[in-house]
Amino acid sequence: MSILRKNWVTIFFFILALLIGWYLANKFSDNQIKSLQKEVKSMVLKNDSLVLIEKGLYSKLVADTAKAKQLRIKVEELQLELKNPNLVIEKEVSFDTIITTVEVVEESEGSFEFNDYYPTKENYYIKYSAKVDTKNKTGEGEFVLKPLSFSLGIEEQPKGMYRINAKVPDFAKVSKLDAISIPYKEKYKKDTFGFIFGAGYGKSFETNSEFLQMNTGIRINKTYLFINAGTNQTVGASLMVEF
Predict the structure, then answer these.
(1) Would you state the pLDDT for residue 65?
(2) Which of 62, 108, 116, 141 is most solvent-facing, going by the fewest CB within 10 Å?
(3) What is the tens place of the pLDDT at every residue in 176-232?
């Protein structure tokens, strides 16, 4: 192999080393950024607390940093019977204490009946009906409970955070709202960069000689930049755009 040919190959591998070094440096920088973002996220989640947005509406961040094993342990503690859980929500609802005026619906000698409602008669969650025997000092009571509805929703926040909102009736309070999950998969990111390497074989019809060619390059979006060198003492560069 001639000295000139060796020089072309040396130049080619030098450029290849530069491209690989540039790629690895960027990769290392991205890993550092992700590590820092993870630390910041853990700190934010640690200091987060239940927030009352308005009456009946509560909010808290989703702790999406749990390991699959941690989530399975939590599921076992709560007896949820899930094999591969992705998200677990713990919620506690409490109720206001109120004083109401009892409505006597029927009264007779030695007994009376009354109804009571929580929180209001017009829109009650609990209805209590009782019949009291004043002679024997005994009574019978009946509770009627309507279904208690509440809603949960999760939305993505800036910087990869997720928030869960809980809506309950105005007479109820959310005293606990914990949502833990394995990390959410990042949304599909557009592939804007690629590193390309290849080799080829060619034949010159002019000199009837065969040669090998090595190619390397980068892709940015749909633009390709190639550098190539061949054993036939040629080096070249090309720029291509995908439509």
Answers:
(1) 86
(2) 108
(3) 999 999 887 654 456 777 777 777 777 777 777 887 777 777 787 788 877 777 777
Dist. CA 57–CA 77, nearest whole Å: 28
User: Up-side HSE of residue 15: CA atoms within 13 Å toward CB?
Assistant: 21
**Is pLDDT of 67 > 50?**
yes
Strands (E) across 100-192 are located at 103-108, 111-118, 126-133, 138-145, 151-156, 162-167, 172-181
Q: Which of 113, 153, 145, 152 is nearest to 129 (CA)?
A: 113
- Looking at residue 66, its amino acid is A
pLDDT computed for residue 90 by the predictor: 94
Tokens standing for residue 128? 């209590």
Give, in order, the Cα–Cα distances in Å from 120 to each of 99, 123, 171, 180, 188: 11, 5, 10, 36, 50
Structure tokens belonging to residue 178: 């914990």
